[in-house]
Amino acid sequence: MNAATKKVAVILTTVLTMAWLLGACSNNNGSGNGSEAGESAQAGEKQDVTLSMLIDSSNHEQNTSIINQAAELASKNSAKYNIKVRINRIPYTDMDKKVDFLAVGHNLPDLVTSGPKQVWMKRGLLADLTDWFNRSPLKDDYMYASLLEEGKNGGKLYAVPNEANSIFLIYNKDLLKKAGIENTDFTSVTWDEWLAMLEKIKQAKLKAKNGNEVKGFTFRISTYESAPFIFSSGGEFFSQDGTEALFDSPEAVDGLEKLKSLVTNGYADKPETDYANWMSVFFNENAAFTITGGWSLSSFKNGGLDLNKLGYSTVPKMKTSTSIFGPGLSFSIFDSSKNKEAAQEFLTAMYSTDIYKQWLELTSGIPVLKSLLDDPQFAGNPIKNVLSNQLNDIKPIHSDNSSSFWDQYDRLLEKVILTNADIAAEQKALQNVIQKEIFDNLK
């Protein structure tokens, strides 16, 4: 072999070695930090992609099964990707802090299931899903514009709510009948009509199996369960964009005064701060009414309450009938993801009929898809009609710019409902604190 031939051989060997090394590196790319669109895949081959997903830690076994099924379906339908999902679980209450921590470290996952977070949208953390949604089967099948609007910012879609849920009245028909109330199959009620029912229950002096007197109403001292009374009185918590606190208004004060009056007039059981204790009052039939969402029905059933005894109504109307959107889940993709296309294909699979129905059964939600409205799984659901009516007049609490609001407002509620503290003064004092927090956060 002469010198020229040797030189050509060395060059060819070097080129082939570099090509092999590049191919090996690209084949290892798909752990959630990989490149988009299968750039290194050879013609006709699919790229292996593992999507990382941040999700609430409850129901982890069922979540894992459903998510894995969606990944398999997405892989089957995809022309580009073999998709797997790595699930990172965290308690729902710690979700905001976890996302903040990961964002600072530039280590956000591909996907997240959470409530729609306007603050994440405004910070540019979430990917724009508008084009994907408009190309997907969801465009003509999604039926709750009010819920979908909560996933938007600036006209663009960043979070897709995957269940319909809200807070409404639940009542025990048997207890109402025993108190002499004739209509035990209503789906809406005015404030005055409700007070008349509560007075009848009070006068009936019913006794529960455990010997306790049956109260008309039981509720938890919580912003979630108290919000509908403020909204129903015409009050607000924050402006739509979350930049202004508004809960010291006369309407908001009136809503809390009416809620407190249920306790002072003996219509309500002493409210609880502990979730489990509050649930037990209702499923032990120590109260005829409670206010909560559809997600609590599984708790009542597990507590031994016959769900056939229950009726459902929208929030009592003061000026209007409205409710807070419950802490349901939405799907979002983080803008930092290098696997956006694969993540979108995964989300499409999550809304496929069989997989989506499993998800709703797990979360006790109502479908957001028209195609499932008359599905046997949901057709006989007694809360469907109430929710369908109420979700047209839904109001969320836009508190994203004030992370301390929920804890502080819970403490305010406990003080004003259980003591003689002045509601208007307490609301005004806290509003000043929260408004300063918003101002500081928006600097």
Please characterize this protein's 3D structure:
The protein has 443 residues and is an alpha/beta fold. Helices cover 44% and strands 13% of the residues. It is built from 18 helices and 13 strands. The chain has a 5-stranded mixed β-sheet, with helices on one face. A 4-stranded mixed β-sheet has the order 8-9-7-10. Helix 2 runs antiparallel to helix 14 and helix 10 crosses helix 17. The protein is globular and about 75 Å long. The N and C termini lie far apart (73 Å). The relative contact order is 0.15.
Topology record:
Layout: H1 3-27, E1 47-56, H2 60-77, E2 81-90, H3 95-104, E3 111-114, H4 118-122, H5 130-135, H6 145-149, E4 152-153, E5 156-157, E6 160-161, E7 167-172, H7 173-178, H8 191-204, E8 215-218, H9 223-232, H10 250-264, H11 275-283, E9 287-293, H12 297-302, E10 310-313, E11 323-324, E12 330-333, H13 340-350, H14 353-363, H15 376-379, H16 384-390, E13 394-395, H17 405-418, H18 423-441
Parallel strand pairs: 1-2, 1-3, 8-9, 11-13
Antiparallel strand pairs: 3-12, 4-5, 6-12, 7-9, 7-10
Features of this protein?
four-stranded mixed sheet, 13 strands, single chain, 443 residues, alpha/beta, globular
In short:
This protein is an alpha/beta fold and 443 residues long.
Number of strands: 13
Instruction: Give the averaged pLDDT, no decimals.
Output: 85
* Termini separation: 73 Å
Low-pLDDT residue intervals, each spanning 5 or more residues = 1-41
Helix share of residues?
40-55%
| Structural class designation | alpha/beta
What's the story with the biggest beta sheet?
Answer: 5 strands, mixed
Percent of residues in β-strands: 5-15%
Question: What is the CA-atom radius of gyration, in angstroms?
Answer: 26 Å
How are the strands of the biggest sheet laid out side by side?
2-1-3-12-6
Shape by Cα distribution: globular
Give me the number of helical elements: 18
